[in-house]
Design goal:
Blueprint (H helix, E strand, L loop, with lengths): L1 E3 L4 H13 L6 H8 L4 E3 L5 H20 L3
Antiparallel strand pairs: 1-2
């Protein structure tokens, strides 16, 4: 199983940065302790990988093309 801490990680990260910048917390360690929820266990649905495989293959081709632009 996979454990996630939030489905809103980006928003929590931005809020954490804002709280530290505003002086609400003395640093990121303290802010993270107070602002992040507990973890949520997620059991992957392996049948979904069959749906996503063709899309992943397309992404791999596009990624290779973009990388070749460097």
């Amino acid at each position: 199983p996979l454990e996630i801490h939030s489905q809103q990680a980006t928003a929590i990260g931005a809020a954490t940065c804002a709280a530290v910048t505003a002086g609400t917390y003395s640093g990121f360690g303290e802010a993270v302790q107070h602002m992040t929820p507990g973890s949520i266990p997620i059991d992957p649905d392996h049948s979904l990988s069959l749906e996503y495989e063709p899309l992943y293959q397309k992404w791999l081709k596009m990624y290779a093309q973009v990388r070749s632009l460097d």
